[in-house]
Amino acid sequence: MLRRPEADFALARAVRRGEALLGDVCSFLGVSFRGQLAYATRFGTAGPLVITPGDGLQSPHRKVGIADLARWAAIDPATAGSGERLRADAERLAATRPRAATLVLLESPAAPSCIDVLGPIFGAALLVPRAMLGRGGSRAALLLRAAQQGAELDYLPASEVPQRGAMRSVA
Asked: Residue 169: which residues within 8 A CB-CB, separation 6 or more?
């Protein structure tokens, strides 16, 4: 819808100009991202980062356009979080973050590619909200409600996320 030439709403026009903010585009595309961004903004001490298909970790304030959306759409969602760019960005972040800093993964812990890539890099510093385990589609509401109420969730190390078969699963 954002890429359609006849779409005449502000965000679609911004996408066509290459001036849409990544956070706005992701929020438009999925309610889960709205909750994630609200939670990360409320409780994060550093700026939130978005895992993008093929472009690694990006600021939600990055400007994106039609070419970005087309490139991301061509990437298989099952492997979107496993790219070399994500790994390189994570290694750079790991090398520069304060030693005691933790990182909270607000992506579905059922996305094994994210944990498989980020877990070995951040180790015990990579956390997942405990309340997200087993919640399925209600994760977005949980995160949004927590952000609105100022109630930070409890975390567990991503390495402790239960596995089902060959994949980590909490969906």
From this structure: 110, 112, 162, 163
CA distance 124 to 117: 14
pLDDT digits (tens, 9 = 90+) for 25-58: 998 987 778 889 999 999 998 889 998 888 889 9
| Residue pair 129/104 in contact by the 8 Å Cβ criterion | yes
Strand duo 56-58 + 63-64: pairing: unpaired
Query: Do the beta carbons of residue 52 and residue 83 sit within 8 Å?
Result: no
Residue spans per domain, the chain: 10-168
Please list the helix, strand and coil fractions of the chain in percent, rounded to the nearest 5, in that order: 55, 15, 35
Name the helix (H) or strand (E) containing 147: helix 139-149
Residue with tokens 């090398």: 95
